[in-house]
Design a protein that fits this description.
Elements: H1 2-5, H2 10-14, H3 16-19, H4 24-43, H5 47-54, H6 81-109, H7 112-129, H8 133-149
Pfam family, one: MPP6
InterPro entries: MPP6
Biased composition (Basic and acidic residues): 136-160
Amino acid sequence: MANDNAKLSKNLLRMKFMQRGLDADTKKQLEEEERRIISDEHWYLDLPELKAKENFIIEERSFGPCEDLKYGRMSFKGFNTEVEKLMIVMNAPNEEEEEEEEISRMETDITDEDMARRYESLVGSMKKKFAKKRERSAIEDVKQNATETETKRAFLKPQD
């Protein structure tokens, strides 16, 4: 009864250790199924899907989009000197334009007055950083004297 209700899967029956104890009938069935599977897979080709993917062609009427492209082959740190020479020749106009743009951006980023103010604050902070203990205490005393001369604001009680 247990054998009738519970059948083993085809994949399990195909395993080598399971084939030792199989009947002649089940062996024949498995062989026939394998032949049918092999024959079906053997003659089936998936070409229509491949052709649909391969026919992706874009037609461009002018070569305008290709004018500003960089040179395709690349070499770095002297690995292929011939290619590096070609890179320099082919990419030279683009690099000059990029350098000009970068220089113009650098000129407009920070004005001279801003740079002078930043430099003053940098000098003061670096002076504090490398000052010795005695020099630090002198700087702090000067700052305290400057703050003491300013009038301290105090809370005034309201008059009735």
